[in-house]
Design goal:
The protein has 225 residues and is an alpha/beta fold. The chain is 45% helix and 19% strand. Bound molecules: adenosine-5'-diphosphate.
């Protein structure tokens, strides 16, 4: 089973794709994590991609596609895998399509007002990258109830996992967020179009909160097995 997760920043794509990986016992593959680890270990790949990540720009397709191809050739991917952060461009989606058959695209959908509230309250561990959220969003918008509970650390500003200090990323500040959402929207559109034409996209509303969204994703996956 090969599942691609799509969704704007703040939709919980990382959280939901990791949970799904645990529940299905499939490997969770995040190109962002692979690049960050390579930078951390100062490998040849790390040196190649450092500049792009520090500028928040996409790593060129040739590099990204090759990294993905190599990763999914490992034996742990034989039964399938879950992709988080790949594809980000149409050529990446097409390259993946030439390598394997994607079974399902989970497209996380969220209300922009809620995304802005969640993103501006996001804190990330400066050491290990774990993400927390301080905003407890429960509100009515256009007659619909949105519940996105907070995920705070146990100790203020300290990472539960590694004890590192939590930071407020520059691109999680309100003025940059709207811009990021626009870019994400623009980037995702052609990819969604590509997968919709294959009839494999399932839209999942994440505004109902962790308790409802998690099971709703699992139900969708079971229906596709
Ligand atoms: P973010 O949501 O902050 O972009 P990611 O972990 O998904 O976090 O990605 C971090 C960075 O890694 C991106 O800004 C980009 O530079 C690079 N990256 C990750 N995945 C891809 C991809 N599929 N194509 C190109 N660049 C990528």
């Amino acid at each position: 089973m090969i599942i691609v997760f799509l969704g704007p920043p703040g939709s919980g794509k990382g959280t939901y794709s990791k949970r799904t990986a645990e529940l299905t016992s499939l490997p969770h593959i995040s190109t962002g994590d692979i690049f960050r680890e390579a930078i951390h270990n100062n490998t040849a790949l790390g040196k190649q991609v450092q500049e792009y990540l520090s500028r928040g720009e996409l790593v060129p397709n040739e590099i990204t596609i090759e990294i993905l191809r190599e990763r999914i050739s490992h034996p742990d991917c034989a039964k399938g895998f879950i992709l988080d952060g790949y594809p980000r461009t149409l050529p990446q989606a097409e390259a993946l399509d030439n390598l394997v058959h994607v079974d399902l695209v989970v497209n996380l959908v969220a209300h922009e007002e809620v995304l802005i509230a969640k993103l501006s309250a996001r804190r990330i561990c400066g050491q290990c990258g774990e993400i927390y959220n301080l905003a407890d969003v429960h509100k009515m918008i256009d007659g619909l109830k949105y519940d996105m509970p907070s995920m705070p650390p146990q100790k203020d500003s300290i990472c539960d996992k590694c004890g590192g200090e939590l930071v407020h990323r520059k691109d999680d500040q309100v003025d940059v967020i709207t811009h990021r959402l626009q870019i994400s929207n623009r980037q995702t559109k052609p990819i969604l179009y590509f997968y919709r034409s294959k009839g494999i996209v399932e839209d999942i509303n994440v505004n109902l909160g962790l308790e409802k969204t998690g099971p709703s994703i699992m139900r969708t996956i079971k229906n596709h097995i």
